[in-house]
Amino acid sequence: MTTKQVRKIRKSGNSYVLTIPPAVMEALDLKEGDTVSITSDQKRAELVKQDPDVVNEDFINMVDSIYEEHKETFKSLVDK
Asked: Per-residue pLDDT tens for 19-52?
């Protein structure tokens, strides 16, 4: 089912706020406190509920970066 509703964007501090209508919350099975990802191009945005058991790609990139920076230290710990 496609849901379309119009909302205004408001400013709150240094951020912008967009309310999500109850029909969209229900359609996406969203609840207060859920995490969503927002993917956008120049004309559209996609809102997707995130599975709390899935590791965030930014977190994986951060771990990879830390590992690369401290690779020799990690290897020496394995050898002990």
From this structure: 999 988 998 899 998 988 899 999 999 988 888 7
Considering the entire predicted model, what is its pTM?
Answer: 0.56
Q: What CA–CA distance (Å, rounded) separates 16 from 63?
A: 30
Tokens at 68, concatenated: 């690369």
d(CA 14, CA 61): 27
Helix locations, the chain, DSSP H = 22-27, 57-69, 71-79
C-alpha 77/C-alpha 70 separation (Å) is 11
Calculate the alpha carbon distances from 3 to 6, 20, 23, 45, 54 in Å. Answer: 10, 11, 7, 14, 26
Task: Enumerate residues 6+ apart whose C-beta is below 8 A from 50.
Answer: 34, 35, 36, 37, 56
